[in-house]
């Protein structure tokens, strides 16, 4: 009985049309950053992960959460779509 109404009664909508194949829109990039933060990651921890993937050196001059967040968003904005 914990299944959603739509599953219990066989309702479903049409499959969504694929509109993007090789791109990671700005909204998706922002969502990735925000989800990482919402799951409990500190901005400094998220920056460590991003820099590890990109082989980038973290900017030691960024020490406040706002500056580190800005650095992370900037790094992800520059990623190629398949890295996101």
Outline the secondary-structure elements:
Elements: H1 5-8, H2 26-38, H3 43-54, H4 65-78
Helix pairs in contact: 2-4, 3-4
What features would you describe in this structure?
The chain has 84 residues and is an all-alpha fold. It has four helices and no strands. Helix 2 crosses helix 4 (65-78) and helix 3 (43-54) runs parallel beside helix 4. The N and C termini lie far apart (37 Å).
Number of helices: 4
Parts with pLDDT < 50 across at least 5 consecutive residues: none
Shape: elongated
Helix/strand order, N-terminal first: HHHH
Helix content: 40-55%
Q: Give the CA-CA distance, first to last residue.
A: 37 Å
Largest sheet: none
Task: Compute the average pLDDT.
Answer: 89
Report the radius of gyration as a whole number of Å. Answer: 18 Å
Q: What class, by secondary structure content?
A: mainly alpha
Give the number of DSSP strands. Answer: 0
Strand content: under 5%
Summarize the structure.
The protein is an all-alpha fold and 84 residues long.
């Amino acid at each position: 009985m914990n299944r959603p109404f739509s599953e219990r009664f066989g309702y479903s909508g049409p499959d969504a049309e694929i509109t993007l194949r090789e791109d990671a829109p700005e909204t998706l990039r922002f969502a990735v950053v925000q989800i990482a933060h919402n799951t409990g990651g500190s901005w400094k921890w998220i920056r460590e992960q991003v820099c590890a993937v990109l082989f980038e050196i973290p900017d030691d001059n960024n020490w406040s959460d706002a500056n580190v967040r800005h650095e992370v968003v900037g790094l992800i904005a520059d990623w190629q779509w398949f890295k996101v």
